[in-house]
Amino acid sequence: xxxxxxxxxxxxxxxxxxxxxxxxxxxxxxxxxxxxxxxxxxxxxxxxxxxxxxxxxxxxxxxxxxxxxxxxxxxxxxxxxxxxxxxxxxxxxxxxxxxxxxxxxxxxxxxxxxxxxxxxxxxxxxxxxxxxxxxxxxxxxxxxxxxxxxxxxxxxxxxxxxxxxxxxxxxxxxxxxxxxxxxxxxxxxxxxxxxxxxxxxxxxxxxxxxxxxxxxxxxxxxxxxxxxxxxxxxxxxxxxxxxxxxxxxxxxxxxxxxxxxxxxxxxxxxxxxxxxxxxxxxxxxxxxxxxxxxxxxxxxxxxxxxxxxxxxxxxxxxxxxxxxxxxxxxxxxxxxxxxxxxxxxxxxxxxxxxxxxxxxxxxxxxxxxxxxxxxxx
Amino acid sequence: xxxxxxxxxxxxxxxxxxxxxxxxxxxxxxxxxxxxxxxxxxxxxxxxxxxxxxxxxxxxxxxxxxxxxxxxxxxxxxxxxxxxxxxxxxxxxxxxxxxxxxxxxxxxxxxxxxxxxxxxxxxxxxxxxxxxxxxxxxxxxxxxxxxxxxxxxxxxxxxxxxxxxxxxxxxxxxxxxxxxxxxxxxxxxxxxxxxxxxxxxxxxxxxxxxxxxxxxxxxxxxxxxxxxxxxxxxxxxxxxxxxxxxxxxxxxxxxxxxxxxxxxxxxxxxxxxxxxxxxxxxxxxxxxxxxxxxxxxxxxxxxxxxxxxxxxxxxxxxxxxxxxxxxxxxxxxxxxxxxxxxxxxxxxxxxxxxxxxxxxxxxxxxxxxxxxxxxxxxxxxxxxxxxxxxxxxxxxxxxxxxxxxxxxxxxxxxxxxxxxxxxxxxxxxxxxxxxxxxxxxxxxxxxxxxxxxxxxxxxxxxxxxxxxxxxx
Lengths: 377, 472
Known about the structure:
The complex is a heterodimer of chains A (377) and B (472).
Chain A: E1 4-10, H1 14-25, E2 30-33, H2 43-46, E3 50-51, H3 61-72, H4 74-77, E4 85-86, E5 89-93, H5 96-110, E6 117-120, H6 121-127, E7 137-141, E8 145-146, H7 152-162, E9 166-168, E10 173-177, E11 182-186, E12 189-198, H8 204-210, E13 217-227, E14 237-240, E15 246-249, E16 255-258, E17 264-266, E18 270-273, H9 276-289, E19 297-309, E20 315-318, E21 325-329, H10 334-349, H11 368-376
Parallel strand pairs in A: 1-2, 1-12, 2-9, 5-14, 12-21
Antiparallel strand pairs in A: 3-8, 4-8, 5-7, 6-7, 10-11, 11-12, 13-16, 13-19, 14-15, 15-16, 17-18, 20-21
Chain B: E1 7-10, H1 14-25, E2 30-33, H2 56-70, E3 74-76, E4 80-86, E5 89-94, E6 100-102, E7 106-109, E8 113-115, E9 128-130, H3 131-138, E10 149-153, H4 156-167, E11 172-177, H5 181-191, H6 195-210, E12 215-217, E13 219-225, E14 232-238, E15 244-253, E16 256-260, E17 263-265, H7 268-272, E18 277-280, E19 285-288, E20 301-303, H8 313-330, H9 336-363, H10 368-372, E21 379-381, E22 386-387, H11 388-396, H12 402-409, H13 422-430, E23 451-452, H14 453-457
Parallel strand pairs in B: 1-2, 1-7, 2-3, 7-20, 9-16, 10-11, 10-16, 11-12
Antiparallel strand pairs in B: 4-5, 5-6, 8-17, 13-14, 14-15, 18-19, 21-22
Helix pairs in contact in B: 1-8, 3-4, 4-6, 5-9, 8-9, 11-12
């Protein structure tokens, strides 16, 4: 027997959960349909928790700034601080070309509200004494931080329960009837909802396909490595000009090393295996930044599947050709930006904000039938 | 340096060495890796000592090492696998020299076993060591820790260690055998096929009796006491399920407690390769799927020895030879006819050896009561100091599996990655009715053991950091 909701949120990761909270607080009747046995088990729960201003392109800066504001207030609206710690960040340059690149990047980003300071190697080492002598320059970002993804699942479970948002676990979506109200069939029964939010991460493409829409999804398989607990050696959140390093030491003393180095896996088989050369490459880059790290031992390298679309820009807007259906995901540094991205999506759904054209899922759009017609013609 | 041998064998214990030699005798190029400096694994670990304490294992071990040296097998001692690749099959290793990846046509994993740990109050005190660790001590140079020493646990290693310590002049306070006399009587028929083992066991028992060392049958360690290090141990009589019986207890003064609760197969490598596992209730652990010739369901991957299930040294040797012959057959170096001819007698002998080996292994399996009795404030995960009470709280709050335990308590996230606490955690979780019994184990990820970053990165310049295009 299907009950009618104002919105069905497909996917219980950080994106879906943030929007669910916003919409419930705005008075909507919300159901979250999650394929797994818990919230935030996939990319949302296995990333490094790195939250930095200069981690990627300029477009994301205002969302990083807004997300940091929201993360800092998490205790009030999420019920826990999720281990958020402001440490300041250093984006490191090892060559002259890299120094030029981070300098011009920083300048661009300042125009979007970021507080960033280009500093020389010596100043950088004052802030982070363990930095290697190979560092030429750095951009200092005082707002950079990290949070603990391991805490996010319990935080949202409690928060969604407090808002009386219904959550179905072990309920992968099997079929969707197109016209609103949507009738969504899962392995545990059906729901009916006026609106649909597709926030299923690497499975976004599967769901939009059910609605005759195809998006050029890419599945990234990102590796993260962690050391055993170490004495304090790194105090800031470190990144690189190449945008392939995230390095920090968290409260329990372990050092997390990431940066988007790829392992092997796919949507259908899941994360399969680690590529040794990429672990070594990632670790070498980390040791370029902090040579002392070579003394530590790694205890685990794991993999997370991350959704992207072909242009690497976020999906945050209406699903073309399907009224009242929305897509949110494929966000580079999704965990970090989830508060602002979720806020934007919710405001768009509620009609309080205009969608951002750059994030429009319709930018790729061609339904299957249109694509076939185009090929035939 | 061979990075593309026809067969690479991981582990130079009896299974790995015999597998390598069998394949090599069929003409294959074989590379044998082990983290130790010499072949022999744990059971035939080369003694660094002089003749004092030499016995059965050393004679067999030396024979093994000589046979290996006389064969065409190329050995890579001091090398350790840190991760694997599956397509094509391969292992990434660290060792003296830069890291390398080996891509053989066939890979055989003979990684042996590790100690099963059953936590009890005081088990993390300095002065408490495993029984297998005690055998390593016995084979090492230098003086043994001062006594009195209490030797406790189950199975044949108990008497071996006690007798070995006595031969080295240690004071053994007591042997505490978790198996009752009835358990031994029940097991003896299965051991009749191994008169050599029975004779050896009888010899150890005679030495122990002659030294006046009491043997307590059907007793287990209840608690270890000491401030800063071990002072004494309380033992208690138990029934077949490991539950206290008759209220009989004793407290024994001891500075060293060597305690063994059996062995579990070291299966990380096979798990990384994606070999499917099945839980075996009698073995109280998950076993990899391997056929009678050592083939796993993963093409090109073979396994043999205690790493596939605890069956003892003779079974390991025979299973190793069978697996080596299977590789030779599968790579075209041995005809089907010759393969059948050579393997038939080995299968026969393996059946008999397995009977005895399995009987001993089952004796070493602790009863469920031993886990159920762990007091709430006892540390279970020693990497992260997680107590039984904290573990129970996670399941009482509704968690249905081990992943939630990990994220909420960090249990299993330390350097041992669950190798030490895994048995106990699974047993404790199973006591909660809404948790699957046994619960699905934690996903194994590399590295197989903690590895120093220096060993992986080596010497390098910035241009030796691969440049990858970020997806931003």
